[in-house]
User: Which sequence fits this backbone?
Protein backbone atom coordinates (compact mmCIF):
# COMPACT_ATOMS: atom_id res chain seq x y z
CA UNK A 1 0.00 0.00 0.00
CA UNK A 2 1.27 3.45 -0.91
CA UNK A 3 2.18 5.64 2.07
CA UNK A 4 -0.22 8.50 2.65
CA UNK A 5 1.38 11.93 2.42
CA UNK A 6 0.32 15.10 4.14
CA UNK A 7 -2.30 17.51 2.86
CA UNK A 8 -1.87 21.23 3.51
CA UNK A 9 -4.16 23.90 2.07
CA UNK A 10 -3.16 27.49 2.79
CA UNK A 11 -5.63 29.91 4.33
CA UNK A 12 -7.25 32.65 2.25
CA UNK A 13 -9.66 35.40 3.26
CA UNK A 14 -12.58 33.00 2.65
CA UNK A 15 -11.08 29.58 3.33
CA UNK A 16 -9.40 27.99 6.34
CA UNK A 17 -5.93 26.56 6.60
CA UNK A 18 -6.28 22.80 6.41
CA UNK A 19 -3.47 20.64 7.74
CA UNK A 20 -3.62 16.86 7.62
CA UNK A 21 -0.41 15.30 8.90
CA UNK A 22 -0.22 11.54 8.52
CA UNK A 23 2.85 10.89 10.71
CA UNK A 24 1.31 12.52 13.80
CA UNK A 25 -2.42 11.96 13.21
CA UNK A 26 -2.99 15.73 13.45
CA UNK A 27 -5.86 17.20 11.43
CA UNK A 28 -6.73 20.87 11.76
CA UNK A 29 -9.04 23.46 10.25
CA UNK A 30 -8.18 27.04 11.18
CA UNK A 31 -9.81 30.28 10.06
CA UNK A 32 -12.96 31.30 8.22
CA UNK A 33 -14.78 28.98 5.84
CA UNK A 34 -16.90 30.77 3.26
CA UNK A 35 -15.75 29.11 0.03
CA UNK A 36 -17.67 29.69 -3.18
CA UNK A 37 -17.31 25.98 -3.93
CA UNK A 38 -17.10 23.97 -0.70
CA UNK A 39 -16.71 20.65 -2.48
CA UNK A 40 -13.58 21.87 -4.29
CA UNK A 41 -12.04 22.77 -0.92
CA UNK A 42 -13.24 19.89 1.25
CA UNK A 43 -13.48 16.89 -1.10
CA UNK A 44 -9.67 16.39 -1.17
CA UNK A 45 -9.69 16.55 2.65
CA UNK A 46 -12.45 13.94 2.85
CA UNK A 47 -10.56 11.72 0.41
CA UNK A 48 -7.41 12.08 2.53
CA UNK A 49 -9.33 11.09 5.68
CA UNK A 50 -10.85 8.08 3.90
CA UNK A 51 -7.31 6.93 3.09
CA UNK A 52 -6.01 7.82 6.57
CA UNK A 53 -8.56 5.68 8.42
CA UNK A 54 -7.20 2.59 6.68
CA UNK A 55 -3.94 2.96 8.66
CA UNK A 56 -4.61 5.54 11.39
CA UNK A 57 -2.42 6.51 14.31
CA UNK A 58 -3.45 5.27 17.80
CA UNK A 59 -4.52 8.85 18.64
CA UNK A 60 -6.02 11.14 16.03
CA UNK A 61 -6.39 14.82 16.96
CA UNK A 62 -9.01 16.78 15.04
CA UNK A 63 -8.65 20.50 15.76
CA UNK A 64 -11.51 22.80 14.78
CA UNK A 65 -10.48 26.41 15.25
CA UNK A 66 -13.05 28.03 12.98
CA UNK A 67 -13.90 31.71 13.37
CA UNK A 68 -16.88 31.34 11.08
CA UNK A 69 -18.21 28.74 8.66
CA UNK A 70 -21.15 28.56 6.32
CA UNK A 71 -23.65 25.71 6.05
CA UNK A 72 -21.97 23.97 3.13
CA UNK A 73 -18.64 24.01 4.99
CA UNK A 74 -20.27 22.47 8.07
CA UNK A 75 -21.77 19.72 5.93
CA UNK A 76 -18.33 18.80 4.59
CA UNK A 77 -16.70 18.98 8.02
CA UNK A 78 -19.48 16.71 9.31
CA UNK A 79 -18.67 14.19 6.58
CA UNK A 80 -15.02 14.30 7.60
CA UNK A 81 -15.90 13.75 11.27
CA UNK A 82 -18.21 10.86 10.36
CA UNK A 83 -15.43 9.26 8.36
CA UNK A 84 -12.99 9.62 11.28
CA UNK A 85 -15.56 7.94 13.55
CA UNK A 86 -15.13 4.81 11.42
CA UNK A 87 -11.48 4.25 12.40
CA UNK A 88 -11.78 0.51 12.74
CA UNK A 89 -10.08 -0.04 16.09
CA UNK A 90 -11.94 0.36 19.41
CA UNK A 91 -8.60 0.77 21.24
CA UNK A 92 -7.76 3.89 19.22
CA UNK A 93 -8.84 7.38 20.23
CA UNK A 94 -10.31 10.30 18.30
CA UNK A 95 -9.76 13.56 20.17
CA UNK A 96 -11.90 16.43 18.92
CA UNK A 97 -10.50 19.83 19.96
CA UNK A 98 -12.89 22.76 19.58
CA UNK A 99 -11.75 26.36 19.96
CA UNK A 100 -14.46 28.92 20.78
CA UNK A 101 -14.58 32.53 21.99
CA UNK A 102 -14.45 32.96 25.76
CA UNK A 103 -18.02 34.36 25.95
CA UNK A 104 -19.48 31.30 24.20
CA UNK A 105 -17.38 29.01 26.37
CA UNK A 106 -18.66 30.66 29.56
CA UNK A 107 -22.27 30.43 28.31
CA UNK A 108 -21.83 26.71 27.59
CA UNK A 109 -20.20 26.04 30.94
CA UNK A 110 -23.18 27.69 32.61
CA UNK A 111 -25.71 25.48 30.83
CA UNK A 112 -27.25 22.49 32.59
CA UNK A 113 -25.69 19.93 30.26
CA UNK A 114 -22.59 20.90 28.32
CA UNK A 115 -23.05 17.91 26.01
CA UNK A 116 -26.38 19.27 24.78
CA UNK A 117 -24.48 22.20 23.28
CA UNK A 118 -22.84 19.73 20.91
CA UNK A 119 -25.83 17.56 19.93
CA UNK A 120 -25.10 17.65 16.19
CA UNK A 121 -21.55 16.47 16.86
CA UNK A 122 -22.61 13.86 19.41
CA UNK A 123 -25.20 12.54 16.96
CA UNK A 124 -22.45 11.98 14.40
CA UNK A 125 -20.14 10.35 16.93
CA UNK A 126 -22.63 8.22 18.87
CA UNK A 127 -21.82 5.03 16.95
CA UNK A 128 -18.11 5.63 16.52
CA UNK A 129 -15.72 2.72 16.60
CA UNK A 130 -12.72 4.44 18.26
CA UNK A 131 -12.98 5.96 21.70
CA UNK A 132 -13.98 9.61 21.34
CA UNK A 133 -13.31 12.52 23.64
CA UNK A 134 -13.68 16.22 23.16
CA UNK A 135 -11.73 19.12 24.58
CA UNK A 136 -13.05 22.68 24.53
CA UNK A 137 -10.76 25.68 24.51
CA UNK A 138 -11.88 29.21 25.38
CA UNK A 139 -9.99 31.79 23.35
CA UNK A 140 -9.55 35.53 23.69
CA UNK A 141 -9.70 38.11 20.89
CA UNK A 142 -6.12 37.23 19.88
CA UNK A 143 -7.04 33.52 19.60
CA UNK A 144 -4.99 32.65 22.67
CA UNK A 145 -6.32 29.81 24.83
CA UNK A 146 -7.59 31.11 28.19
CA UNK A 147 -9.40 28.06 29.60
CA UNK A 148 -10.11 24.47 28.65
CA UNK A 149 -12.36 21.59 29.63
CA UNK A 150 -12.60 17.93 28.67
CA UNK A 151 -16.01 16.57 27.67
CA UNK A 152 -16.30 12.80 27.45
CA UNK A 153 -18.86 10.94 25.38
Assistant:
Amino acid sequence: MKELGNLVVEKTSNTPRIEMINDSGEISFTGRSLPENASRLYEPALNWVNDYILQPKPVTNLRLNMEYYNTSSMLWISKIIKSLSRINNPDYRLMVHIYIPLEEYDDMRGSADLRESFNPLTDILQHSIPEVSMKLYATDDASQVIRDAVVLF
